[in-house]
Design brief:
By secondary structure, this protein is an alpha+beta fold. It has 4 helices and 11 strands, in the order αβββββαββββββαα.
Length: about 180
């Protein structure tokens, strides 16, 4: 399953069509994926590759959203289920379930999602600020909302989410160095 190369190819085609104009400088590319009924977008530059889901090795006493670790070409990669982390309804793993391998602050982390949709280039005028909510829900990782045709796309700062204190991924990386 080589969806990453396909996504890179699509991104290059879109970039070529834009002609490198000044307007293109205000555009950003996002990998879009689904978690339940919602569609999310993350900065394509954080994505290292997309892999089919394989059951990770469980780590004792890890939080429920950390599914375990996998060996990715000699690198031990923690795998986070974003559905559990973001409080979505639990969905069974199926043939569409994938792991997005991310490079966050020099650390490789896997994120389990229901499916990957596509790579979109969005101009800044399509992105609206995230709504402010006075709740106990942490929305600090949501950078904006984009309307793409009939779709609502929740844009997230995956680096902020993965490096948040409750994840425990980045602090443990620093203590190992």
């Amino acid at each position: 399953m080589d969806m990453h190369n396909e996504g890179s190819h699509l991104a290059r085609q879109d970039s070529a069509r834009s002609g490198g104009s000044a307007a293109a400088a205000k555009k950003a590319e996002f990998l879009t994926f689904r978690l339940g009924a919602e569609e999310y977008g993350i900065d394509i530059l954080r994505v290292q590759e997309i892999r089919s889901f394989e059951e990770p090795t469980r780590i004792a006493n890890a939080p429920s959203f950390i599914k375990g670790v996998v060996n990715l070409r000699g690198v031990i990669v923690p795998v986070v289920d974003l559905r559990i982390k973001l409080g979505c309804e639990k969905v069974e793993y199926n043939g569409f379930t994938v792991v997005i391998v991310l490079n966050v602050r020099g650390r490789v982390v896997g994120a389990v999602v229901d499916s990957v949709s596509d790579v979109l280039e969005l101009s800044s005028d399509l992105i609206k600020p995230a709504p402010e909510m006075n709740t106990t829900v942490d929305t600090s990782f949501i950078t904006g909302i984009a309307s793409v045709g009939e779709r609502m796309l929740i844009l997230m700062d995956i680096e902020a989410l993965m490096s948040s204190a409750d994840m425990g991924l980045m602090d443990s990386a620093r203590s190992l160095q």
